[in-house]
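Renewal narrative, Specific Aim 1. Our central claim is that a sequence can be written position by position from structural information alone. The example that follows is taken directly from our test logs and has not been curated for this report. It begins with the structure tokens describing the chain, in the order in which they were read.
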């Protein structure tokens, strides 16, 4: 578990859950479970501006602002990557754009997934995380 105060509670719980699992197969099962929890992703949202760049798999992410909170949706053509999307969606949904932008990528290593996943999947995880931060920054109120 990481001591970073910028990790939101939902994401901290997810990191803690993964931190308790040392078996890579169980981590994969946990990831797939997060992917299955995602809402159905509409085909109309599978457009270039929602496509995560730098991923081997096809990955899409959308974000909407509702009463000052960001709500993400996402999808991937890979079960494992869909799980990474699901993990991040669950970890970030309901936060303000500012709270999301304050999260550093350190939590990725704290999940232990960097040991279980291939370098290209970890890179994809980081790219999904960066895309979600970019979407959140677009939803910041004008200053």
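The sequence written for that structure reads:
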């Amino acid at each position: 578990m990481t001591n970073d105060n910028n990790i939101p509670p939902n994401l901290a719980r997810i990191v803690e859950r993964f931190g308790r699992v040392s078996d890579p197969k169980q981590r994969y099962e946990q990831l797939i479970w997060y992917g299955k929890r995602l809402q159905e992703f509409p085909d109309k949202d599978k457009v270039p501006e929602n496509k995560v760049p730098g991923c081997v798999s096809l990955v899409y992410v959308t974000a909407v602002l509702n009463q000052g909170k960001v709500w993400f949706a996402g999808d991937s053509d890979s079960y494992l990557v869909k799980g990474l999307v699901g993990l991040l969606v669950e970890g970030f949904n309901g936060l303000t754009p500012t709270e999301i932008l304050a999260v550093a990528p350190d939590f990725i290593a704290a999940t232990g997934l960097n040991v279980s996943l291939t370098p290209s999947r970890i890179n994809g995880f980081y790219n999904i995380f960066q895309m979600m931060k970019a979407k959140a920054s677009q939803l910041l109120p004008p200053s």
